[in-house]
Design goal:
299 residues, 13 helices, mainly alpha
Length: 299
């Protein structure tokens, strides 16, 4: 039995979510049928594949990502328990964004309330600090997709321990193909060290969200309300994560698994009124197969 399959900082809020994550970890370790929908399994698995490919590319250009993934998906991912939580969170966030885009009308253009929804500056006009912080957040979010627009996990967003574990698992796979070549094995060890040092210096969407929240100051409530009205969930998640000083993935999973009645207290640090929360509640309610605390039969 897998006791915990979430990444550091993600504390599963319900037996239902814990069951989903245990199932996904089992699926990644040895693909099999389960209670997750086909869409949830496919999205989570594809996100895991893109992550493995991206990390492998950082380790050594000679690694065959197709061969690595094919072997792992047949025999099971070595780090399945660590990847299940972050891949599921990313997949569920993507499903949420997609269903919002498909099932709702475009929100009205709101009156200017903060720098996050300002018109772009005129040519030659300098950007404000708020505009620059918001642009950095948008760029960090865009890095969480591949070149074709499919959801992915940016390497910069990975927890250091998860990144190193995945890196070492890939290095072990590569090492088994070197057939005792000590020189190339030593090079591989150096590559692990360099990749680890590089990753430690990278900043992802969590850092961008924190910077945006801090530069907004008292305007963060208006920015959060505008994000909800526009169904801009990454901005809302980033602001809520910064307000709570939690990781982006942790906050995303908390919002996605929260009951409607819990949202006001959950987002209390952003000082949002009930009217501002209504579109958020409605959007979450429409998400199919969402794991919430009041679900039954998933012990």
């Amino acid at each position: 039995m897998i006791d915990s399959v979430s990444s550091p900082g993600i504390d599963p809020p319900s037996p239902t979510l814990s069951a989903r994550l245990r199932e996904l970890a089992g699926y990644l370790a040895a693909p099999a049928a389960g209670r997750l929908t086909e869409e949830q399994r496919a999205l989570s698995l594809s996100i895991a594949r893109r992550l493995v490919v991206d990390v492998a590319a950082r380790l050594h250009p000679g690694i065959d990502p197709g061969g690595l993934w094919s072997e792992w998906v047949r025999g099971g991912l070595p780090c399945a328990a660590r990847l299940a939580g972050i891949c599921f969170a990313r997949a569920e966030e993507h499903r949420w964004r997609e269903q919002s885009a498909l099932r709702t009308s475009p929100p009205p253009i709101l009156a200017e309330t903060d720098g996050a929804i300002a018109d772009p500056p005129a040519v030659g006009e300098p950007m404000s600090d708020v505009d620059r912080a918001y642009l950095a957040l948008q760029i960090a979010d865009r890095r969480r997709f591949d070149a074709l627009g499919n959801p992915a996990l940016a390497v910069a967003d990975l927890d250091g321990e998860i990144f190193r574990t995945l890196l070492l698992d890939i290095a072990s796979w590569r090492l088994s193909a070197l057939s005792g070549d000590t020189a190339r094995a030593a090079e591989l060890g150096d590559a692990v060290r360099v990749a680890t040092e590089r990753h430690a210096d990278e900043r992802g969407i969590e850092h961008a969200g924190q910077a945006y929240y801090e530069i907004l100051g008292s305007a963060s409530a208006d920015a959060a309300a505008a994000a909800i009205a526009r169904h801009n969930w990454p901005t809302l998640i980033a602001l809520a994560a910064a307000a709570h000083r939690r990781s982006y993935g942790d906050m995303a999973m908390t919002l996605l698994t929260a009951e409607s009645a819990a949202l006001p207290s959950l987002l209390a640090p952003l000082r949002l009124d009930h009217a501002a929360l209504a579109p958020l509640e409605a959007s979450l309610t429409m998400l199919p197969a969402r794991a919430v605390a009041d679900a039954s039969g998933d012990e």
